Amino acid sequence: MLDETKVYDQYDPGNIHSLLYNFYEQFTLGREIAEASDYMLIDSSEVEEIIIAGMGGSAIGADLLKCYGMYELKEPMFVNRDYLLPGFANENSLVILSSYSGNTEETISVLEAAKFLGTKLFAITSDGQVSNYAQDFGFGVVEIPGGLPPRSALGYSFVPLTVLFSLWGFIPDETENLKTTMYALHKGAEKLSREIPENLNIAKQLARKLYGKLPLVYSSPRLEAVATRFRGQINENAKTLAYSAVVPEMNHNELVGWKTLGSYKDSLAPIFLIDPDDHPRNKFRMEFVGNVMREMGIEPIVLEPPQTDAPFMTRMFELVQLGDFTSYYLAILNRENPKPVDVIDRLKASLAEFEK
Q: Among 85, 82, 78, 88, which Cα is nearest to 104's?
């Protein structure tokens, strides 16, 4: 099925495949528009903590940057998925609004709270109310291209945010790592494209293994955002449930739950995302958990970045790319159009009525 051209015409009329294939192009433009923004409106020497306000596809770029800069960031960074700001927010907090549409209601609510508290403000958006507020209130904004599903605009959230952090001195200059990652994603897309037959395409093979199963995605803290992205893409593209958790935390609770699996045992598909630089004790923990699963008769799927000697940013995004393409092929196997998210649209319509 996955090697038949006609099924893609039937189930992918919006050509999500082209967005996956050309994702690497967002790295170049994302860097250029961030460098051309009015980032100098922010005096980074006055920033004591960084709060990124966003939801869903607009927030995952911040999650990835937080994991990427985990051991380099000197200022505390918090990804805020709520209507309200955390209690520690004050005039020395930098609140970055990340809303692809510019109309995300939780992010608009945070904007209003930030104005009330007098925090420093900056935004990454394509349009909408956030853009209008930026003009009215005079705070800086990176204007990214619109017209995409937010989850397909990951490069436009991660790359400008990374460039801004470099320009503000929060992390080192990442220009070369961004270029290396862009090149790797271009090459990776050629190997994962729908034109590549299933016997040579690891994303198609992985989708086949996950078909009809509940994917359980595990990682170390370094790859937590990659696992979150993997799960979210399966949810939105393939229209099916998935779950993610982190080692070592899951060793202190969830691990015990692998004793009594009941009738759903054969429906589980555990996936381990492995990075060469994972803490040695986390590597041992994941091997231990894998053996526990094998004792229960379940063989976990172990995924590593294709280039284990590449920069960490590249390794992260190689796994992101594999997860994205896998979710796409799983959508096709599920006979689902990967583009629409009808139930989210229904929720938004219901919320509009709730406000009335």
A: 82
